[in-house]
Amino acid sequence: MILDNIASLKYFYPEASLIGTVIVLIVLDLAFKGRRGKWQAWVALAGLAPALVFSIDLYAGGESGSLFTGMLALDSFAGFFRILFIGASALTVLISVISSDTSRGENQGEYYAFLLMITLGMFLLASSMDLLMIYLSLELVSITSYVLAGFLKGVRRSSEAALKYVIYGGVSSGIMIYGMSLLYGLAGSTNLMEIYKALSTASPSTEFALFVSILFVLAGFGYKIATVPFHMWTPDVYEGAPTPVTAFLSVGPKAAGFAVLIRFFYMAMAGPGPAEGLWAPVSDIGWPLLLGLLSAGTMTAGNLIAINQNNIKRLLAYSSIAHAGYILMGFVLLSAEGLKAMLFYLVVYLIMNIGAFLVVIIVANQLNSEEIEDYAGLGWRAPFLAVAMTVFLFSLTGIPPTAGFIGKFYLFAAIFSKDEFYWLAIVGILNSVVSLYYYARIIKAMFLVESSEQPRLKIPPLHTTLLSVLVVPTILFGIYWAPLAEFVARSLEFLASGF
Amino acid sequence: MVGLNHFLVLSAILFSLGVYVVVSRRNAVAILMGVELILNSASINFVAFSHYTTSSMGGQMFAIFVIVLAAAESVVALAIVLSIYQQFRTIDADEASTLRE
Q1: Whole-angstrom Cα distance, residue A451 to residue A406?
Q2: Residue from the list B22, B50, B80 with its beta carbon closest to the beta carbon of A159
Q3: Residue of A nearest to B36 (CA)
Q4: How far is A19 from chain B (nearest CA, A)?
Q5: 3-class secondary-structure state, position A377
Q6: Has residue B100 been placed in a domain?
Q7: Which tens digits make up the pLDDT trace of A223-258?
Q8: Whole-model pTM?
Q9: What residue numbers bound the domain in which A380 lies?
Q10: Into how many domains does chain A fold?
Q11: What are the backbone angles phi and psi of residue B54, rounded to the nearest 5°?
C-alpha cells in the first residue's frame, strides 16, 4: 500500500510529537530563560513519552506500506528502531542530568532540543526508502551532532572535536551524494524499490559504474557507523565531546547508520534469494565480500589500537569501532538470521555501552579525570560502581552470563551457517580475545592496583539507581533472553523488493 | 553538440578538484570550500541525468535539496570555525589540535 501525503499523516505521529516537543522546549526555554534547575530535561523526557506510546501503537498495529508517496517505509523494522532510539535518547537525557559536563551552564534548553532533533533524524533515517530522504535525514542527524559535539563553550577539546567532526562529516556526505548521483543516473530513479527493478534488468556493462557508486555511497554510511577507513574522526570526537553526547553518538546514530545500511542494501542491492529468509545480490558485483572485508578490517583496527589507549573515552571509542565490525558480520550473510543477530546485538550494545559511559561520567564527576590510571583502587573506594563497570566490560567482551555473550553467540551462530564466511568468524573470535586484554586492563586497575588516596566516594542515590537500571538488563538478557529475541524476530518484517 | 558525457566529465573533474582541495589544504575554511565543490559536482550530475535520461524532475529537485543542505551545513561549520578561532587564534586544522594518541 502506497499512501499519499494526507493519508500518511496518521502514521507520522511519533515524528510529529517529537517535532512538537522540540518547538515547545525552545519556546519554554526562551520564556523562562533565567529559571535554574533541570526542568528542560524533564520536558524532554515528557516529550519522549508520547513518541514512545505512538511508536508502540504503530508497532503493535503491524501495518506495512510506504508513506508520503514512497518516501518513508511503514513497517515493523522501522518500528523496532524507533523504540530503540527512544530508549537511547531517554537514557541520554538521564545521564546528561547527571554529568557535570552538560548539567551546568547556560543553554540547557537548546541542548535537549538538539538531542530530540537528532532522535527525529534517526527516526526518519531508519524508515527512509528514497535516496533523497536518506540524504536529508542523514544530514539532519549529522548537522545537529556537530553542534552537540562542540556544545561546551570555551572548552578547547570540545570545539576541536566539533571541527574534526564537521570536516570529516562534510567530506564523507559529499562523497556519498556524488555516489547517489551516479546511482540515480544508472537507475533513473531515487526510490530504492525502483532502483532495484532497474538494476536487476540492467546490462552487465554497467557493473563497474554500479560498483563505484556503491563504494561512494558506503563512504556516507561507513562514516555514520564508523567503519574502517571512515573511522578517523571517531577517537577525537568521542574524546572531545561532552561524555553524554559521546555515549549517545556511540549508540544512537550508529544504530541509525546500521538501519539505513540494511535498508539500502537489502532493498536496492538485493532481491529474493534461493530460499525463505535469504537474499541474493542484484548483480555479480561482490558487495557482501566487500563489506566482509570492511568488517574484518574494522574490528581488527579498533581492537589493536584500543590496546594502547590510556584515556577511557578514547578506549571506548576504539571499542565502539570494533563493535561496528562485529555487527557488520551479521550484515554480509544476506540472511534473516544474520539480520536478527545484528538487531539483537544493537539492543544489547545500547544497554552495555551507555552503562559503561555512565560509570565514566560518575567517576569524572568525582575525580575529574578520564585516565585509566585514576581508576586505581576504585574497587574499594566505590565497590558498586566498580562491580557495575566490570559487568559492562565483561558484557562488551562477550563473557557469560552477560547479554553481550548472547549477542555475540547469535552473531557467530549466524556466520557459521554460511561456509564462505568462515574466515570472518575466525577473525571475529581472535578479535574478541584481543579485546579481553584491554577491557581487563580497566578491571585490573580497579581491583588489583592500590590507590594512594583511599577515601570512599559518595555516589548520589539517583546515580546508583540509574546504574542498577542498566546493570540488571545486562545480566538478565544473559540468562533469559527469549523475550528480546522474539521482539527482534518480529521486527524483521520489512519492505523488500520483489517479495 | 553538448551531451550527457560532457556534463559527466565536468562533474568528475569538479569532484576530483574538490577531493584534492580537501586533502591538500589545512585551512579549515578552504577545506569547507572543497566540500562545496564536491557537492556541486553531485548537483551537476543530478541535473544532467535528469535532463538527458529521465522525463521526471526528480534530479533537479534533488539538486535543490543539495544546495539547501549545503547552506545549512556551512552555517554550522562556520560557527564551529569561529569558535575554534576564538580559542586557538588560528583556523589551521592541523595546529588546532590537542587531542592526540
Answers
A1: 35
A2: B80
A3: A174
A4: 18
A5: coil
A6: no
A7: 999 998 899 999 999 999 999 999 999 999 999 999
A8: 0.95
A9: 5-490
A10: 1
A11: -125, 165
